[in-house]
Structures are given as C-alpha cells and as structure tokens.
Task: inverse folding
C-alpha cells in the first residue's frame, strides 16, 4: 500500500467520524428543542372579584381547568371557591400568595359532591396537583 493511499484512508476515516459526531450533536439539539417546546405550558390565573389578584383572567377554577390544555398551570389566588372540581387532564394546580395570604379553599356543595361520586370518580387520568 502506498503512502498516498494510506493518507487517503486515514482522511476518509476522519471524515466519517466527524460526520457521525455532527449527526449525534444535531439529533441531541433536535431532541432538546422538541423537549423545551413541549415541556412548558401556559399559566392561567384564577381570582375572586372581591380579592386582590394580579392578572386574574378567570373567576372560577372550573373555568380555568376547562380552558387549560394538558401540561398547563392553573395558578389560584387566595379565596374561598364554592365549586366541585373534576380534572380529567394532566395539569398543575398552584396556590398563589397575594399580600401575605396564601390559602386557597374549595367548598363543594353537598349535592354536587354526591352527584359526582355516583356518576364518576373525582380525579381521572394522571392529574398532578401541587
């Protein structure tokens, strides 16, 4: 084998190795971009009209849950919410602290609670609450 042939063979191996590394880096970047685009949802803020809550677009938790997409965060301002929740998609419920107050209370009615228990489970699917 001539020296020129040996140099050409070594060069081809280096080029192939470089192409493999470029492919691996490209795939890693594609994976990271896809993961970042899908891992963060939007935040929907819930607040009672009588309570100070910045940027509240919803007055009931139910309305925010219904408007949310899977993976979204429903941020709830401190107040008493007289409602029954049925969550059938993966969401994060997050209690907010406003003016030093950080207590979110749910008060379902007895009639709504009994009807929900008879018809279907309260939480279905994989629901994450924090």
Result:
């Amino acid at each position: 084998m001539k020296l020129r042939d040996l140099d050409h063979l070594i060069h081809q191996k280096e080029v192939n190795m470089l192409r493999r590394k470029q492919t691996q880096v490209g795939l890693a970047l594609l994976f990271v971009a896809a993961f970042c685009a899908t891992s963060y949802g939007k935040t929907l803020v819930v607040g009672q009209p009588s309570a100070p809550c910045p940027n509240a677009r919803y007055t009931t938790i139910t309305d925010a849950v219904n408007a949310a997409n899977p993976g979204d965060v429903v941020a709830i301002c401190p107040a008493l919410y007289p409602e029954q929740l049925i969550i059938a998609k993966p969401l994060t419920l997050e209690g907010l602290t406003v003016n030093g107050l950080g207590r979110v209370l749910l008060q379902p009615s007895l009639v709504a609670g009994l009807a929900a228990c008879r018809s279907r489970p309260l939480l279905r699917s994989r629901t994450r609450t924090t």
